[in-house]
Write a structure and sequence with these properties.
Number of strands: 7
Strand content: 15-25%
Number of helices: 11
Helix content: 25-40%
Largest sheet: 7 strands, mixed
CATH topology: Rossmann fold
Bound molecules: S-adenosylmethionine
Length: 253
Amino acid sequence: MVWNAGVYLTYADERTRPAVELLARVHHDNPVRVIDLGCGPGNSTAVLAARWPHAHLEALDSSPSMLEQARKSGVRAHWIEADLTSWSPAVEYDVIFCNAALQWLGDHRGLIPRLASFVEPGGTFAFQVPHNMEAPSHALMRQAAAAGLWAAKLRNVREVAVLQPSDYFDILQSVRAQIDVWETEYLHVLDGEDAVYEWVSGTGLRPFVQALDGSEREAFIADYKSRLRKAYPRRLDGTTLFPFKRLFAVARF
Ligand SMILES: C[S@@+](CC[C@H](N)C(=O)[O-])C[C@H]1O[C@@H](n2cnc3c(N)ncnc32)[C@H](O)[C@@H]1O
């Protein structure tokens, strides 16, 4: 799946705020080894670098275009191109941090214990995933995908996979962590035309759009945009309010 770092960073503040709020619940003064999984263009890595300037900081992503942008960010980190589904580090980490990436991988019941096993005793695994699959932005994506001549091509597009907060609690309890799980619903205030479309086009919409070409892709986008305009009307001041729920988990070992 191809990522566009520029489109993703259109809402850099909104996308980075959860990383800051997740990190606020990670209580380590001087971790030696820290890694940012699914670092994207390096926005979450920058937050880690500022908090622990003396740590050995690594940042991993499977997308060459995201890593290219990350390297240009000037953030002091060791950038690693790797796929988390098969990643198996030779060392353990004091902090494994993952903001807004695990939702792209399936099988969280297997994945999370595996990633947690790479944490040093006394260390922390902290992650955040969007938890808004039932919001109109995603429900309408599925409805638009099923509604047109393109339906057959979009039937098997894999959506992001997120469990319930109590599921993450159970998974982390099974690996004997001290657990802190919570949710936050942000009320994003977006500017411009088709602002919610612009937001999701940088993330959740990409697998749908990338499965179509040419006029079919354009028709699908037009259909989806018109549904979004009704669900998220633009306000008199030109802004659009976009409620967005996210799930956070911090596990200390
Ligand atoms: C939504 S971005 C998050 C970027 C950044 N961490 C942030 O806080 O905004 C998700 C990132 O996860 C990466 N990703 C998705 N699947 C992955 C995988 N299997 N292995 C490694 N990285 C993956 C994508 O390439 C993308 O850069």
